[in-house]
Amino acid sequence: MPTQSIDYSKATVERGYTDRLLRVDLNSRKIVVEKIPDEMRSMFVGGRGYCLKLVYDGTHSETTYDSPENVLALAGGPFCGESGFAGTGKFIVGSISPLTRTFCDSNVGGYFFPLVKQAGFDAIAITGKSAKDVMVIIDGDRGKIEIVDAPETEFSLLEAEKVIDQYKGEGTPAGVAFVCAGRGARETLFGCVNSIYYDVRRKRCRAKQAGRGGLGTVMRTKGLRGIVVKCDISAGISNRPADREQLRDAGKKIRSVIREVDPNSMSLGTQGTTSLIDMMNPHHLLPINNYQYGSDERAKDVSGKIFENRVFEQRKPDGCFAGCNLACTKGCEQYTLKSGPHAGKTVAVDGPEYETAAAVTNLGIFDIDGMLEYAWYCDEYGLDTISAGVVMSFLFEAYERHILTPEDTGGLKLEWGRVDTVLELLHRMASGEKGLAKEAGKGVRQMKHYIASLVASRNGQLSGEIMAELELFAMESKGLEFSMYITKESLAQQGGYGFALKGPQHDEAWLIALDQIKKELPTFEKKASALKWFPLFRTWFNIVGLCKLPWIDVRHPEAKNTEDPAKNLPTIEYYLGLVNGTLGTQKTLDDLLAESERSYLLHKLINLRQGLGTREHDVIPLRAKAPVYMNEFLSRKAYYQQYLADVAGIQVNGMGDDEMLTALQKYRNGQYEKLTDVVYQEKGYDPNGIPRDETLVRLGFNKDEYLNIVQAARERV
């Protein structure tokens, strides 16, 4: 097909915004530049808020992930691309998800959206479906946007430099970035979006991932291979703040805290997020064998210190965007692949991040080479490392419990600790091989039904009986696979996963450290209160284009002297300096929370519109609340005995192990239901999880279209 293009006048960034939206319809190949309405900006701010609004407006209750009208939205926020402050390379990708069947979004770093912003856009909305794979090219230097045919070969991490070289022209490699989705995203429902940029210090391309929810699958379903942006940044990047000195002062202060605190706490600057392995394992929070166990002595072989000393090449600064001295974007510069289509090639591996490494321990593997191989191939194929790992661990446990047989698995021995089996299954999923691998690529929720039907047909059992057992350890909720934390002993994190609007993803409510490690949420009331406040403030980061790590993982030394240390209020003051220095406002923390709550409510309304979003959809599997089987209970028997006696008030003397396990499960289920009631009340919902009218009115959602969604949900339950 012929190239389609438009010329445009590049809007400049002013006080954090360009106020321009780029729309691309792949059906008609129509490209339009629009002004973002003032009401949209004031209500939804940017980033996640813009993605929510674009998807809400462009879709309807019958829209599925592969519907032509489905919107693939990408947006930064007013602080995305601000090199005077730490953690500002983040942007959001959002759409109707193939896994959750409603809105899902994922945040990702790199240079892509800072360059898009400098090229003149606060958001991009892609609709339609192209019969032939295409690319979108945004050339901010020439003021030109094009839709061109994609190359015959797949976008590959190995080929990334060629794409950069093709489009940089006379500029520098740092002035080009792109997002794309690999062949695995085409073959599965949990494809990720790779955000690829050129690292001038390492002199190679690097990849960060918008991993959750199958957004790369949406991209490939649309026939979109990728989006390239080009913009000359040799003179620097600026959001043209209202008060540059106020912003610089805030940026200087937060960088100072990072320099002082991180080396003596999380060590993110030297170990990346692999430091979390050492944090989680001693507290029984590291997932092992499909979340059955939370600790293993073999974790010492894959500790953050091992990665620091043997794997990561230390080059500072090592952030995913300029100005961030947290420098947690680690990588291995030389690793020789041992499996798959690229066996024998020496590659650079970005990360692995904690979530990726823990997805491998969740398969019973404590081998750094296995983690590097898994991480690189997931990125190469465009697969979410979390969903891929969890679906495989679910299959491994079904095999362990003799629900699946070698006949069902095509001869694969799904045994814990077998790196070769994990990688073979990964390669099969990415290639779309028919049978078990193809079904596994649809995620845990659909895999449950496949296994139940398969076993029932083979054994003459009722599929409902098999499904009932599978649901005990199928680690998904709302269709999304759990991220990598054991929650059996943390009621707060159970709620953080269960009430998360996109499904059990830690970026909305990561309370595991506060609850179980630091013991800062000791009472039921504190846990419930945290489950309102923390999701709102964490959501705020996603609507403004910021990374959460400088706030949540680098605690200000003075936080301990405040009434609520977990909120890290001294650092929040620096964020207020960023906000008001950029926008020229006098906003308070309450203003930021209100902005976040509006975006949060719109997500809830989309869920309800899609026929979801009520209490029944906030359930989590028993494995997330308590031990399911006796082996889990016995591995922590002393702890559970004491818990039953001291917390649940149950007399355990004379009780057998089976009785104690049953009592524990009953108590934990009851606590979760009680928590649900209290958190719904805190959020302004009724007992079915539906927003009350006064909540809609308070947040400006009193239009008939919103009221009708809520009324339909009430009638449904």
How is the largest sheet built, in terms of strand order?
A: 1-9-8-13-10-11-12
Output the structural class: alpha+beta
What are the low-pLDDT stretches, counting only 5+ consecutive residues below 50? none
CATH architecture of the largest domain: 4-Layer Sandwich
Task: Please state the CA-atom Rg, rounded to the nearest Å.
Answer: 24 Å
Into which percentage range does the β-strand content fall? 5-15%
**Structural shape:** globular
CATH homology group of the largest domain: Aldehyde ferredoxin oxidoreductase, N-terminal domain
Q: Average pLDDT value?
A: 95
Q: What is the CATH class of the largest domain?
A: Alpha Beta
Domain unit count: 3
Number of strands: 17
Note the gap between the termini. Answer: 49 Å
| Major β-sheet profile | 7 strands, mixed
Approximate helicity band: 40-55%
CATH T-level fold name of the largest domain: Aldehyde Ferredoxin Oxidoreductase,  A, domain 1
Task: Give the count of helical stretches.
Answer: 28
Oligomer: single chain
Give a structural overview.
The chain is α+β, with helices and mostly antiparallel strands. The protein folds into three domains: about 5-230, Aldehyde ferredoxin oxidoreductase, N-terminal domain (Aldehyde Ferredoxin Oxidoreductase,  A, domain 1, 4-Layer Sandwich), CATH 3.60.9.10; about 265-480, Orthogonal Bundle (Aldehyde Ferredoxin Oxidoreductase Protein, subunit A, domain 2), CATH 1.10.569; about 490-515 and about 525-555 and about 590-715, Aldehyde Ferredoxin Oxidoreductase Protein, subunit A, domain 3, CATH 1.10.599.10. It is built from 28 helices and 17 strands. Helix 16 (about 445-460) runs antiparallel to helix 17 (about 465-475). The model has no long low-confidence stretch (mean pLDDT about 95).
